[in-house]
Specification:
249 residues; alpha/beta; 8 strands; pyridoxal phosphate; Cys/Met-Metab_PyrdxlP-dep_enz
Length: 249
Amino acid sequence: MAFLPGSLPPSNFQWRRKQHRSARMKSEDGVVQGVPIEEIEKHPNVKFHRQGILNDEVQKYGEDTKVVKGGSHPEEWSTDPLQRTVVNPPVYHNSTVLFKTTAAYKYAASDWPFTGMWYGRHGNPTSWALEEAFAVIEGGYAACATGSGVAANNAAILAFVESGDHLIVTDGCYDPTREFCDGFLKRFKVETTYVSPLITPDELAKEIRPNTKIVFVESPSSLSFEIMDIPALAKVAHDVRTLPSYAEG
């Protein structure tokens, strides 16, 4: 799941709340374990979650170089006094994270993942390297790795809808996505309209309602492999109601 250029993460992610909490902590404390918070925020993992990658220096590279550079921070992977390091990120096998001081723990717990690593389920340098690389290659604002495609689809939908909302989904979607819409979402009074994977932009515009919150397309379609005109359909969604469009393929 990646946030596209020009769009901010959904309010359901409590992005603004986290930013306010970070600003408050910064003004009250200023230093954690003897390290200024300004220095902590320069660390690649913290910087990625706070700022995304749109303004990152990696954007100046060509597409081939981005594939190599995206998510790569070898200077952070060295434990060698001579700064010898490795090409690829180490694989972190962890759930629990150790902290030297209570202050460091409280800082990390206050605003994860915007304060770096706190608990394995919320991410670690290995998963964050993957997310950053994906965002760089796809040209997104940021990215979120999940345990499966179903989890990615469901998380993207739940980030935008609530009871009483409506969403538009391609009839060629992955079957578990349909089950999620017809089962879980229906129980919470979220209505789904399925449209042809060959729908035109004009036809899509007619399906958008005042309470439509997301247009979900999949290209190529699951099993039947129709190719949808994602740019044209996304433009309609953005023009009619500034709707988020989610493409899965």
